From TrEMBL:
Keywords: ATP-binding, Cell membrane, Kinase, Membrane, Nucleotide-binding, Phosphoprotein, Transferase, Transmembrane, Transmembrane helix, Two-component regulatory system. Residues 306-358 form the HAMP domain. Gene3D superfamilies: HAMP domain in histidine kinase, Histidine kinase-like ATPase, C-terminal domain, PAS domain. Pfam families: HAMP (PF00672), HATPase_c (PF02518), His_kinase (PF06580). PANTHER family: SENSOR HISTIDINE KINASE YPDA (PTHR34220), SENSOR PROTEIN KINASE HPTS (PTHR34220:SF11). It comes from the Bacteria. SMART domains: HAMP, HATPase_c. Its main location: membrane. This is Two-component system sensor histidine kinase YesM. It is a multi-pass membrane protein.
Amino acid sequence: MRRRISLPLKLFFIVFAFVLGCIILISQLSYRYVQKEIRTNDIFYTNQILDKVDQYFTVNFSSFQTILFSVETSVKANINNTEVIKKQLRELYELNSIYVSNIYLIKSDLSILGGSTPTRIFDEPLSERAPLFDAADKNRRTTFVSEPYKSKYSGWTVTMVRYLNGAPFPMAIAVDLDLNAIEETLFKINKQEQMNLALITASGKIIAGFSENKGPLNIQDHSFSIGETSAEEILDTTETNLQLYTNDGIPVSLLKKPTEKFNWTIISINDESRLKAALSRLETYYLELLAAGLLLSLFISFLVAKYIRKPLYTLKTKMKQVEQGILTTTITINRNDEFGDLSRAFDRMLQQIVELIRRAELHNELERKLEIQVLQSQINPHFLYNTLGSISNVIRLGQIEKVDVVIGSLISLLEYGIDDASEKVSLRQELRNVADYIEIQNIRYNRNFNLIEDIEAGLMDFPVFRMLLQPLVENSIFHGYNGGGIEGPITIHAYREDGIVIIEVVDQGEGIPADKIKHILISEPSEEEVKRKRIGLNNIQGRIRLHYGDQFGLDIISIPKEITRIRAVFPAELPKGDA
Protein backbone atom coordinates (compact mmCIF):
# COMPACT_ATOMS: atom_id res chain seq x y z
CA MET A 1 0.00 0.00 0.00
CA ARG A 2 1.31 3.41 -0.98
CA ARG A 3 2.29 5.44 2.03
CA ARG A 4 0.51 8.76 2.40
CA ILE A 5 2.37 11.96 3.19
CA SER A 6 0.70 13.63 6.13
CA LEU A 7 -1.07 16.91 5.52
CA PRO A 8 1.04 18.95 7.98
CA LEU A 9 4.22 17.85 6.18
CA LYS A 10 2.71 18.74 2.79
CA LEU A 11 1.73 22.16 4.08
CA PHE A 12 5.21 22.67 5.51
CA PHE A 13 6.91 22.19 2.11
CA ILE A 14 4.26 24.15 0.18
CA VAL A 15 4.33 27.16 2.51
CA PHE A 16 8.14 27.09 2.71
CA ALA A 17 8.50 27.11 -1.09
CA PHE A 18 5.82 29.76 -1.56
CA VAL A 19 7.09 32.21 1.08
CA LEU A 20 10.75 31.82 0.10
CA GLY A 21 9.89 32.18 -3.61
CA CYS A 22 7.86 35.34 -2.94
CA ILE A 23 10.67 36.87 -0.89
CA ILE A 24 13.26 36.11 -3.60
CA LEU A 25 11.00 37.48 -6.34
CA ILE A 26 10.13 40.63 -4.40
CA SER A 27 13.78 41.15 -3.47
CA GLN A 28 14.91 40.84 -7.10
CA LEU A 29 12.23 43.20 -8.36
CA SER A 30 12.93 45.65 -5.54
CA TYR A 31 16.66 45.56 -6.23
CA ARG A 32 16.19 46.27 -9.94
CA TYR A 33 13.67 49.01 -9.23
CA VAL A 34 15.85 50.68 -6.60
CA GLN A 35 18.88 50.40 -8.89
CA LYS A 36 16.96 52.17 -11.64
CA GLU A 37 15.64 54.81 -9.23
CA ILE A 38 19.11 55.46 -7.78
CA ARG A 39 20.51 55.98 -11.26
CA THR A 40 17.61 58.26 -12.25
CA ASN A 41 17.85 60.24 -9.02
CA ASP A 42 21.62 60.54 -9.43
CA ILE A 43 21.14 62.09 -12.90
CA PHE A 44 18.36 64.33 -11.58
CA TYR A 45 20.50 65.41 -8.62
CA THR A 46 23.48 66.12 -10.87
CA ASN A 47 21.29 68.24 -13.17
CA GLN A 48 20.10 70.16 -10.12
CA ILE A 49 23.73 70.87 -9.16
CA LEU A 50 24.49 71.99 -12.72
CA ASP A 51 21.49 74.33 -12.58
CA LYS A 52 22.78 75.82 -9.32
CA VAL A 53 26.25 76.32 -10.82
CA ASP A 54 24.68 77.99 -13.87
CA GLN A 55 22.72 80.29 -11.56
CA TYR A 56 25.98 81.12 -9.79
CA PHE A 57 27.59 82.16 -13.10
CA THR A 58 24.50 84.10 -14.13
CA VAL A 59 24.68 86.11 -10.92
CA ASN A 60 28.43 86.68 -11.41
CA PHE A 61 27.86 87.76 -15.01
CA SER A 62 25.38 90.37 -13.80
CA SER A 63 27.91 91.53 -11.18
CA PHE A 64 30.67 91.87 -13.80
CA GLN A 65 28.32 93.77 -16.10
CA THR A 66 27.53 96.11 -13.23
CA ILE A 67 31.25 96.69 -12.69
CA LEU A 68 31.71 97.53 -16.37
CA PHE A 69 28.81 99.97 -16.34
CA SER A 70 30.09 101.54 -13.10
CA VAL A 71 33.51 102.11 -14.66
CA GLU A 72 31.93 103.49 -17.82
CA THR A 73 29.87 105.97 -15.84
CA SER A 74 32.84 107.00 -13.66
CA VAL A 75 35.22 107.49 -16.61
CA LYS A 76 32.73 109.58 -18.56
CA ALA A 77 32.19 111.79 -15.52
CA ASN A 78 35.93 112.25 -14.90
CA ILE A 79 37.40 111.84 -18.39
CA ASN A 80 39.90 114.65 -17.83
CA ASN A 81 40.90 113.68 -14.27
CA THR A 82 43.14 110.61 -14.46
CA GLU A 83 43.82 110.48 -10.73
CA VAL A 84 40.12 110.29 -9.86
CA ILE A 85 39.68 107.48 -12.41
CA LYS A 86 42.61 105.56 -10.94
CA LYS A 87 41.21 105.95 -7.44
CA GLN A 88 37.76 104.72 -8.45
CA LEU A 89 39.27 101.77 -10.35
CA ARG A 90 41.27 100.86 -7.24
CA GLU A 91 38.17 101.10 -5.01
CA LEU A 92 36.09 98.99 -7.40
CA TYR A 93 38.84 96.37 -7.59
CA GLU A 94 39.25 96.18 -3.81
CA LEU A 95 35.49 95.89 -3.40
CA ASN A 96 35.27 92.97 -5.88
CA SER A 97 38.71 91.38 -5.42
CA ILE A 98 37.10 88.10 -4.35
CA TYR A 99 35.76 87.54 -7.87
CA VAL A 100 38.04 89.57 -10.17
CA SER A 101 41.82 89.75 -10.69
CA ASN A 102 41.89 93.24 -12.13
CA ILE A 103 39.73 96.13 -13.38
CA TYR A 104 41.38 98.46 -15.90
CA LEU A 105 41.05 100.71 -18.95
CA ILE A 106 42.83 99.73 -22.20
CA LYS A 107 43.99 102.64 -24.31
CA SER A 108 44.48 102.49 -28.05
CA ASP A 109 48.26 102.18 -27.57
CA LEU A 110 47.56 99.08 -25.37
CA SER A 111 48.70 100.82 -22.19
CA ILE A 112 46.31 100.69 -19.24
CA LEU A 113 44.95 102.44 -16.18
CA GLY A 114 44.68 99.55 -13.67
CA GLY A 115 42.91 98.93 -10.40
CA SER A 116 45.20 96.24 -8.95
CA THR A 117 48.52 97.16 -7.38
CA PRO A 118 50.82 95.68 -10.10
CA THR A 119 48.91 97.32 -12.95
CA ARG A 120 48.89 100.66 -11.18
CA ILE A 121 52.70 100.49 -11.20
CA PHE A 122 53.40 98.68 -14.47
CA ASP A 123 51.01 100.11 -17.02
CA GLU A 124 53.19 99.81 -20.16
CA PRO A 125 51.62 98.57 -23.42
CA LEU A 126 51.40 94.79 -23.86
CA SER A 127 50.69 92.97 -27.09
CA GLU A 128 48.42 90.46 -25.33
CA ARG A 129 45.84 93.24 -24.93
CA ALA A 130 45.53 93.80 -28.69
CA PRO A 131 42.91 91.02 -29.26
CA LEU A 132 40.86 92.36 -26.36
CA PHE A 133 40.92 95.95 -27.61
CA ASP A 134 40.17 94.89 -31.22
CA ALA A 135 37.23 92.72 -30.08
CA ALA A 136 35.78 95.59 -28.04
CA ASP A 137 36.24 97.98 -30.98
CA LYS A 138 34.38 95.60 -33.34
CA ASN A 139 31.52 94.96 -30.86
CA ARG A 140 30.91 98.42 -29.47
CA ARG A 141 27.36 97.70 -28.26
CA THR A 142 28.01 94.40 -26.46
CA THR A 143 30.33 92.90 -23.90
CA PHE A 144 33.00 90.55 -25.27
CA VAL A 145 34.16 87.52 -23.24
CA SER A 146 37.60 86.23 -24.18
CA GLU A 147 38.94 82.72 -24.31
CA PRO A 148 40.99 81.76 -21.22
CA TYR A 149 44.63 82.84 -21.48
CA LYS A 150 47.74 83.43 -19.35
CA SER A 151 47.91 87.10 -18.35
CA LYS A 152 51.16 88.68 -17.19
CA TYR A 153 49.50 90.30 -14.17
CA SER A 154 46.29 88.29 -13.61
CA GLY A 155 47.55 84.77 -14.32
CA TRP A 156 45.14 82.22 -15.83
CA THR A 157 42.10 84.35 -16.53
CA VAL A 158 39.17 85.26 -18.76
CA THR A 159 38.59 88.92 -19.62
CA MET A 160 35.26 90.67 -20.10
CA VAL A 161 35.84 93.78 -22.20
CA ARG A 162 33.48 96.57 -23.35
CA TYR A 163 34.19 99.53 -25.61
CA LEU A 164 33.87 102.94 -23.92
CA ASN A 165 31.45 104.79 -26.18
CA GLY A 166 31.41 108.58 -26.03
CA ALA A 167 35.05 108.95 -24.91
CA PRO A 168 37.18 111.61 -26.70
CA PHE A 169 39.72 108.92 -27.67
CA PRO A 170 39.44 105.11 -28.22
CA MET A 171 39.35 103.24 -24.93
CA ALA A 172 37.96 99.93 -23.61
CA ILE A 173 36.95 98.79 -20.12
CA ALA A 174 38.22 95.35 -19.06
CA VAL A 175 37.63 93.05 -16.10
CA ASP A 176 39.91 90.02 -15.55
CA LEU A 177 37.97 87.24 -13.85
CA ASP A 178 39.56 85.39 -10.95
CA LEU A 179 39.37 81.83 -12.30
CA ASN A 180 40.99 80.54 -9.10
CA ALA A 181 37.90 81.68 -7.15
CA ILE A 182 35.63 79.97 -9.68
CA GLU A 183 37.73 76.82 -9.53
CA GLU A 184 37.72 76.85 -5.74
CA THR A 185 33.91 77.01 -5.80
CA LEU A 186 33.81 74.02 -8.14
CA PHE A 187 36.28 72.15 -5.91
CA LYS A 188 34.03 72.69 -2.90
CA ILE A 189 31.07 71.27 -4.79
CA ASN A 190 33.20 68.34 -5.99
CA LYS A 191 34.23 67.55 -2.44
CA GLN A 192 30.86 68.05 -0.75
CA GLU A 193 28.76 66.32 -3.41
CA GLN A 194 31.38 63.74 -4.50
CA MET A 195 31.19 65.09 -8.02
CA ASN A 196 33.69 65.95 -10.77
CA LEU A 197 32.73 69.31 -12.33
CA ALA A 198 34.52 71.50 -14.83
CA LEU A 199 33.84 74.63 -16.86
CA ILE A 200 34.91 74.54 -20.51
CA THR A 201 34.77 76.98 -23.37
CA ALA A 202 33.11 76.49 -26.75
CA SER A 203 36.48 75.40 -28.15
CA GLY A 204 36.90 72.70 -25.48
CA LYS A 205 39.39 74.51 -23.25
CA ILE A 206 39.08 73.95 -19.50
CA ILE A 207 38.45 77.20 -17.61
CA ALA A 208 38.27 75.65 -14.14
CA GLY A 209 37.65 72.31 -12.46
CA PHE A 210 38.81 68.67 -12.61
CA SER A 211 41.43 69.15 -9.89
CA GLU A 212 41.04 66.59 -7.13
CA ASN A 213 39.25 63.77 -8.97
CA LYS A 214 40.66 63.54 -12.46
CA GLY A 215 39.55 59.92 -12.77
CA PRO A 216 39.57 58.89 -16.46
CA LEU A 217 40.58 62.34 -17.74
CA ASN A 218 43.74 63.30 -19.57
CA ILE A 219 44.33 67.02 -18.93
CA GLN A 220 47.04 68.81 -20.85
CA ASP A 221 47.30 72.49 -21.70
CA HIS A 222 43.79 73.06 -20.38
CA SER A 223 42.22 70.61 -22.82
CA PHE A 224 40.80 67.17 -22.13
CA SER A 225 39.39 64.03 -23.69
CA ILE A 226 37.64 60.94 -22.38
CA GLY A 227 39.03 57.82 -23.98
CA GLU A 228 38.87 58.38 -27.72
CA THR A 229 36.24 61.12 -27.43
CA SER A 230 37.64 64.65 -27.56
CA ALA A 231 36.15 67.71 -25.90
CA GLU A 232 35.13 69.09 -29.29
CA GLU A 233 33.14 65.92 -30.07
CA ILE A 234 31.46 66.08 -26.67
CA LEU A 235 30.41 69.67 -27.28
CA ASP A 236 29.23 69.04 -30.85
CA THR A 237 26.69 66.38 -29.86
CA THR A 238 23.18 67.57 -28.99
CA GLU A 239 22.76 64.96 -26.25
CA THR A 240 23.10 66.23 -22.69
CA ASN A 241 23.69 62.80 -21.12
CA LEU A 242 26.51 60.68 -22.57
CA GLN A 243 27.83 57.24 -21.64
CA LEU A 244 31.58 57.07 -22.41
CA TYR A 245 34.56 54.83 -21.67
CA THR A 246 38.07 55.80 -20.59
CA ASN A 247 41.25 54.40 -22.07
CA ASP A 248 41.13 51.77 -19.31
CA GLY A 249 37.61 50.74 -20.29
CA ILE A 250 36.00 52.31 -17.21
CA PRO A 251 32.43 53.47 -17.94
CA VAL A 252 31.64 57.07 -17.05
CA SER A 253 28.47 59.14 -17.25
CA LEU A 254 28.88 62.67 -18.61
CA LEU A 255 26.28 65.43 -18.20
CA LYS A 256 26.64 68.82 -19.78
CA LYS A 257 24.74 72.09 -19.52
CA PRO A 258 25.41 75.33 -21.42
CA THR A 259 25.59 78.42 -19.23
CA GLU A 260 22.93 81.04 -19.76
CA LYS A 261 25.13 84.13 -19.93
CA PHE A 262 28.64 82.94 -20.88
CA ASN A 263 29.46 80.92 -23.99
CA TRP A 264 30.65 78.15 -21.70
CA THR A 265 29.50 74.65 -20.83
CA ILE A 266 29.39 73.02 -17.41
CA ILE A 267 30.58 69.39 -17.52
CA SER A 268 29.95 66.72 -14.88
CA ILE A 269 31.80 63.42 -15.16
CA ASN A 270 30.66 60.62 -12.89
CA ASP A 271 32.48 57.31 -12.83
CA GLU A 272 29.42 55.87 -11.01
CA SER A 273 31.35 55.62 -7.76
CA ARG A 274 28.40 57.07 -5.84
CA LEU A 275 26.04 54.67 -7.61
CA LYS A 276 28.31 51.72 -6.90
CA ALA A 277 28.58 52.69 -3.23
CA ALA A 278 24.80 52.91 -2.94
CA LEU A 279 24.34 49.60 -4.77
CA SER A 280 26.98 47.98 -2.60
CA ARG A 281 24.99 48.93 0.49
CA LEU A 282 21.85 47.72 -1.26
CA GLU A 283 23.45 44.36 -2.10
CA THR A 284 24.40 43.88 1.55
CA TYR A 285 20.83 44.64 2.52
CA TYR A 286 19.59 42.28 -0.22
CA LEU A 287 21.70 39.38 1.12
CA GLU A 288 20.51 40.10 4.65
CA LEU A 289 16.94 40.15 3.34
CA LEU A 290 17.38 36.76 1.68
CA ALA A 291 18.83 35.29 4.86
CA ALA A 292 15.98 36.73 6.88
CA GLY A 293 13.54 35.43 4.24
CA LEU A 294 14.95 31.93 4.57
CA LEU A 295 14.55 31.99 8.34
CA LEU A 296 11.10 33.56 8.03
CA SER A 297 10.03 30.87 5.54
CA LEU A 298 11.14 28.12 7.90
CA PHE A 299 9.44 29.77 10.85
CA ILE A 300 6.15 30.40 9.05
CA SER A 301 6.12 26.91 7.56
CA PHE A 302 6.70 25.37 10.98
CA LEU A 303 3.92 27.47 12.52
CA VAL A 304 1.46 26.58 9.76
CA ALA A 305 2.25 22.86 10.00
CA LYS A 306 1.99 22.96 13.76
CA TYR A 307 -1.21 25.00 13.56
CA ILE A 308 -2.82 22.38 11.30
CA ARG A 309 -1.47 19.31 13.06
CA LYS A 310 -2.62 20.22 16.54
CA PRO A 311 -6.37 20.68 15.85
CA LEU A 312 -6.29 17.80 13.40
CA TYR A 313 -5.39 15.18 15.99
CA THR A 314 -7.32 16.92 18.75
CA LEU A 315 -10.55 16.76 16.77
CA LYS A 316 -9.89 13.15 15.79
CA THR A 317 -9.62 12.04 19.42
CA LYS A 318 -12.83 13.93 20.34
CA MET A 319 -14.91 12.46 17.53
CA LYS A 320 -16.33 9.62 19.64
CA GLN A 321 -17.50 12.13 22.29
CA VAL A 322 -19.37 14.07 19.60
CA GLU A 323 -21.05 10.89 18.37
CA GLN A 324 -22.36 10.36 21.92
CA GLY A 325 -24.12 13.76 21.83
CA ILE A 326 -21.43 16.11 23.27
CA LEU A 327 -21.51 18.77 20.57
CA THR A 328 -18.30 20.79 20.36
CA THR A 329 -17.60 21.42 16.71
CA THR A 330 -18.73 20.65 13.16
CA ILE A 331 -16.74 19.84 10.04
CA THR A 332 -17.56 18.54 6.55
CA ILE A 333 -14.54 17.96 4.27
CA ASN A 334 -14.24 15.25 1.60
CA ARG A 335 -10.52 14.56 1.33
CA ASN A 336 -8.27 11.49 1.37
CA ASP A 337 -6.31 12.60 4.43
CA GLU A 338 -6.74 13.22 8.16
CA PHE A 339 -9.45 15.82 7.60
CA GLY A 340 -11.33 13.32 5.43
CA ASP A 341 -11.29 10.78 8.26
CA LEU A 342 -12.83 13.32 10.61
CA SER A 343 -15.35 14.48 8.03
CA ARG A 344 -16.79 11.00 7.43
CA ALA A 345 -17.25 10.50 11.18
CA PHE A 346 -19.04 13.85 11.62
CA ASP A 347 -21.35 13.28 8.61
CA ARG A 348 -23.27 10.59 10.57
CA MET A 349 -24.20 13.21 13.18
CA LEU A 350 -24.75 16.19 10.87
CA GLN A 351 -28.58 16.12 10.79
CA GLN A 352 -28.88 15.91 14.56
CA ILE A 353 -26.35 18.75 15.05
CA VAL A 354 -28.05 21.02 12.52
CA GLU A 355 -31.48 20.49 14.06
CA LEU A 356 -30.26 21.12 17.61
CA ILE A 357 -28.44 24.30 16.60
CA ARG A 358 -31.44 25.54 14.61
CA ARG A 359 -33.80 25.07 17.56
CA ALA A 360 -31.36 26.70 19.99
CA GLU A 361 -30.89 29.71 17.70
CA LEU A 362 -34.64 30.18 17.23
CA HIS A 363 -35.20 30.03 20.97
CA ASN A 364 -32.39 32.48 21.77
CA GLU A 365 -33.46 34.91 19.04
CA LEU A 366 -37.07 34.89 20.21
CA GLU A 367 -36.02 35.46 23.82
CA ARG A 368 -33.72 38.33 22.81
CA LYS A 369 -36.43 40.05 20.73
CA LEU A 370 -38.94 39.76 23.58
CA GLU A 371 -36.49 41.30 26.05
CA ILE A 372 -35.69 44.14 23.69
CA GLN A 373 -39.38 44.87 23.15
CA VAL A 374 -39.97 44.91 26.92
CA LEU A 375 -37.18 47.45 27.38
CA GLN A 376 -38.26 49.61 24.43
CA SER A 377 -41.92 49.63 25.47
CA GLN A 378 -40.93 51.66 28.53
CA ILE A 379 -40.01 54.64 26.41
CA ASN A 380 -42.84 55.74 24.10
CA PRO A 381 -45.48 56.58 26.84
CA HIS A 382 -43.02 58.92 28.52
CA PHE A 383 -42.51 60.93 25.33
CA LEU A 384 -46.25 61.58 25.07
CA TYR A 385 -46.44 62.60 28.74
CA ASN A 386 -43.54 65.04 28.42
CA THR A 387 -44.83 66.55 25.16
CA LEU A 388 -48.37 67.07 26.47
CA GLY A 389 -46.86 68.79 29.49
CA SER A 390 -45.04 71.15 27.15
CA ILE A 391 -48.24 71.99 25.24
CA SER A 392 -50.05 72.60 28.54
CA ASN A 393 -47.28 74.94 29.63
CA VAL A 394 -47.46 76.95 26.38
CA ILE A 395 -51.26 77.39 26.66
CA ARG A 396 -51.09 78.20 30.37
CA LEU A 397 -48.51 80.92 29.73
CA GLY A 398 -50.66 82.40 26.95
CA GLN A 399 -48.00 81.86 24.27
CA ILE A 400 -50.56 81.05 21.60
CA GLU A 401 -48.17 81.81 18.74
CA LYS A 402 -46.00 78.87 19.85
CA VAL A 403 -48.83 76.34 19.87
CA ASP A 404 -48.38 75.47 16.19
CA VAL A 405 -44.64 74.93 16.74
CA VAL A 406 -45.27 72.64 19.70
CA ILE A 407 -48.03 70.72 17.91
CA GLY A 408 -45.83 70.30 14.81
CA SER A 409 -43.00 68.93 16.93
CA LEU A 410 -45.51 66.73 18.82
CA ILE A 411 -46.81 65.27 15.55
CA SER A 412 -43.21 64.49 14.46
CA LEU A 413 -42.49 62.87 17.83
CA LEU A 414 -45.66 60.77 17.73
CA GLU A 415 -45.05 59.63 14.16
CA TYR A 416 -41.52 58.72 15.13
CA GLY A 417 -42.54 56.99 18.35
CA ILE A 418 -45.38 54.80 17.05
CA ASP A 419 -43.16 53.03 14.49
CA ASP A 420 -41.72 49.59 15.19
CA ALA A 421 -39.56 50.08 18.28
CA SER A 422 -37.35 47.09 17.48
CA GLU A 423 -36.42 48.49 14.08
CA LYS A 424 -33.09 50.26 13.79
CA VAL A 425 -32.99 53.86 12.54
CA SER A 426 -30.16 56.02 11.24
CA LEU A 427 -28.35 58.49 13.46
CA ARG A 428 -29.72 61.22 11.18
CA GLN A 429 -33.29 60.26 12.12
CA GLU A 430 -32.42 60.23 15.82
CA LEU A 431 -30.89 63.69 15.55
CA ARG A 432 -34.01 64.99 13.81
CA ASN A 433 -36.18 63.53 16.59
CA VAL A 434 -33.94 65.11 19.27
CA ALA A 435 -34.23 68.46 17.49
CA ASP A 436 -38.06 68.24 17.75
CA TYR A 437 -37.74 67.30 21.41
CA ILE A 438 -35.39 70.24 22.15
CA GLU A 439 -37.79 72.59 20.34
CA ILE A 440 -40.60 71.55 22.70
CA GLN A 441 -38.41 71.87 25.81
CA ASN A 442 -37.19 75.31 24.77
CA ILE A 443 -40.81 76.48 24.61
CA ARG A 444 -41.87 74.58 27.68
CA TYR A 445 -39.18 76.00 29.96
CA ASN A 446 -38.81 79.31 28.10
CA ARG A 447 -35.11 78.52 27.73
CA ASN A 448 -32.60 78.13 24.93
CA PHE A 449 -31.03 74.68 25.03
CA ASN A 450 -28.81 75.08 21.98
CA LEU A 451 -28.34 71.74 20.18
CA ILE A 452 -24.87 71.35 18.64
CA GLU A 453 -24.17 68.43 16.29
CA ASP A 454 -20.57 67.28 15.66
CA ILE A 455 -20.84 64.13 13.56
CA GLU A 456 -17.91 62.46 11.85
CA ALA A 457 -18.26 62.04 8.09
CA GLY A 458 -19.99 58.78 7.20
CA LEU A 459 -21.76 58.28 10.56
CA MET A 460 -25.02 60.05 9.73
CA ASP A 461 -26.37 56.73 8.39
CA PHE A 462 -24.98 54.64 11.27
CA PRO A 463 -27.85 52.42 12.59
CA VAL A 464 -28.87 52.98 16.24
CA PHE A 465 -31.80 52.10 18.48
CA ARG A 466 -34.94 54.14 18.09
CA MET A 467 -35.26 56.58 21.04
CA LEU A 468 -31.56 56.21 21.93
CA LEU A 469 -30.63 59.90 22.17
CA GLN A 470 -33.82 61.45 23.61
CA PRO A 471 -33.39 59.93 27.14
CA LEU A 472 -29.74 61.07 27.16
CA VAL A 473 -30.71 64.62 26.18
CA GLU A 474 -33.54 64.55 28.73
CA ASN A 475 -31.00 63.55 31.39
CA SER A 476 -28.87 66.60 30.45
CA ILE A 477 -31.87 68.94 30.86
CA PHE A 478 -33.17 67.30 34.06
CA HIS A 479 -29.86 66.76 35.89
CA GLY A 480 -27.42 69.10 34.15
CA TYR A 481 -29.68 72.14 33.79
CA ASN A 482 -31.89 71.55 36.88
CA GLY A 483 -34.99 70.54 34.95
CA GLY A 484 -34.96 73.72 32.89
CA GLY A 485 -33.95 75.99 35.76
CA ILE A 486 -30.87 77.09 33.79
CA GLU A 487 -30.01 76.94 30.12
CA GLY A 488 -26.97 75.94 28.14
CA PRO A 489 -25.72 74.03 25.09
CA ILE A 490 -26.20 70.32 24.51
CA THR A 491 -23.59 68.84 22.17
CA ILE A 492 -23.89 65.50 20.36
CA HIS A 493 -20.63 64.01 19.10
CA ALA A 494 -20.29 60.88 16.95
CA TYR A 495 -16.92 59.48 15.92
CA ARG A 496 -14.97 56.28 15.32
CA GLU A 497 -12.08 55.20 17.52
CA ASP A 498 -10.12 51.89 17.58
CA GLY A 499 -12.83 49.72 16.05
CA ILE A 500 -15.77 51.23 17.95
CA VAL A 501 -18.28 54.00 17.33
CA ILE A 502 -18.87 56.48 20.17
CA ILE A 503 -21.94 58.72 20.39
CA GLU A 504 -21.68 61.36 23.13
CA VAL A 505 -24.19 63.74 24.70
CA VAL A 506 -22.38 66.57 26.48
CA ASP A 507 -23.81 69.35 28.68
CA GLN A 508 -22.17 72.10 30.74
CA GLY A 509 -24.59 72.09 33.63
CA GLU A 510 -24.46 71.14 37.28
CA GLY A 511 -22.94 67.72 36.67
CA ILE A 512 -23.32 64.48 38.59
CA PRO A 513 -21.53 63.88 41.91
CA ALA A 514 -18.91 61.14 41.74
CA ASP A 515 -20.62 59.04 44.45
CA LYS A 516 -23.82 58.87 42.35
CA ILE A 517 -22.33 58.00 38.97
CA LYS A 518 -21.70 54.36 39.84
CA HIS A 519 -25.37 53.89 40.87
CA ILE A 520 -26.95 55.42 37.75
CA LEU A 521 -26.39 52.46 35.40
CA ILE A 522 -27.61 49.72 37.76
CA SER A 523 -30.53 47.58 36.65
CA GLU A 524 -33.11 48.97 39.08
CA PRO A 525 -34.39 52.55 38.42
CA SER A 526 -34.44 55.05 41.25
CA GLU A 527 -37.66 55.93 43.15
CA GLU A 528 -37.69 59.39 41.58
CA GLU A 529 -37.55 57.93 38.09
CA VAL A 530 -40.38 55.50 38.89
CA LYS A 531 -42.49 58.31 40.34
CA ARG A 532 -41.95 60.60 37.34
CA LYS A 533 -42.02 57.71 34.86
CA ARG A 534 -38.69 58.91 33.44
CA ILE A 535 -36.50 56.68 31.33
CA GLY A 536 -33.40 55.74 33.32
CA LEU A 537 -29.99 55.48 31.67
CA ASN A 538 -29.96 51.88 32.85
CA ASN A 539 -32.67 51.20 30.25
CA ILE A 540 -30.37 52.39 27.43
CA GLN A 541 -27.49 50.46 28.99
CA GLY A 542 -29.60 47.29 29.00
CA ARG A 543 -30.64 47.66 25.37
CA ILE A 544 -27.08 48.11 24.10
CA ARG A 545 -25.62 45.26 26.14
CA LEU A 546 -28.47 42.88 25.34
CA HIS A 547 -27.97 43.50 21.63
CA TYR A 548 -24.18 43.79 21.31
CA GLY A 549 -22.66 42.31 24.48
CA ASP A 550 -21.37 43.44 27.87
CA GLN A 551 -18.26 45.12 26.44
CA PHE A 552 -20.48 47.85 25.01
CA GLY A 553 -22.95 50.23 26.67
CA LEU A 554 -22.86 53.59 28.44
CA ASP A 555 -20.04 55.43 30.15
CA ILE A 556 -20.44 58.60 32.25
CA ILE A 557 -17.77 61.23 32.86
CA SER A 558 -18.79 64.24 34.96
CA ILE A 559 -16.98 67.19 36.49
CA PRO A 560 -19.46 69.03 38.76
CA LYS A 561 -20.20 72.63 37.69
CA GLU A 562 -18.21 72.11 34.47
CA ILE A 563 -19.20 69.28 32.14
CA THR A 564 -21.03 65.97 31.94
CA ARG A 565 -20.28 63.53 29.11
CA ILE A 566 -22.46 60.42 28.52
CA ARG A 567 -20.91 58.09 25.95
CA ALA A 568 -22.81 55.31 24.15
CA VAL A 569 -20.33 52.77 22.76
CA PHE A 570 -21.18 50.54 19.76
CA PRO A 571 -19.11 48.14 17.65
CA ALA A 572 -17.93 49.72 14.38
CA GLU A 573 -18.49 46.39 12.63
CA LEU A 574 -22.20 45.82 13.14
CA PRO A 575 -23.80 42.35 13.25
CA LYS A 576 -25.47 41.14 10.09
CA GLY A 577 -28.89 42.77 9.72
CA ASP A 578 -28.02 46.00 11.57
CA ALA A 579 -26.33 47.86 8.71
